[in-house]
């Protein structure tokens, strides 16, 4: 009998804490970005979730800003 390990599932939605960790910023900074509209999010009931694509789009917007 073999014990096959399942491949890790890539998350499509992040909790704010997880998104902040992925971006290497503080949680309060993440909430500020969400409030000002720089980082899109969705609401599922009372919970906020950030799509992985929106985290990536935010990072791309940082690299395309002029110095």
Q: What's this model, at a glance?
A:
The chain is an alpha+beta fold and 67 residues long.
Write a structural description.
With about 70 residues, the protein is an alpha+beta fold. The chain has one domain. It contains three helices and three strands; from the N terminus they run βααββα. The protein has helices at about 15-25, 25-35, 50-65; strands at about 15, 40-45, 45-50. A three-stranded antiparallel β-sheet has the order 1-3-2. Helix 1 (about 15-25) crosses helix 2. It starts with 12 loop residues before the first strand and ends with a helix.
Provide key terms for this protein:
67 residues, 3-stranded antiparallel sheet
Q: What is the averaged pLDDT score?
A: 91
The number of E-state strands comes to: 3
Distance between the termini: 59 Å
Beta-strand residue fraction: 5-15%
The main sheet orders its strands as 1-3-2
How many strands, what sense, and barrel or not for the largest sheet?
3 strands, antiparallel
**pLDDT < 50 stretches:** none
- Structural Rg: 15 Å
Which class of secondary structure composition applies to the elements?
Answer: alpha+beta
Instruction: Report the principal-axis shape.
Output: globular
Q: What is the succession of H and E elements?
A: EHHEEH
What's the helix count? 3
Helix content: 40-55%
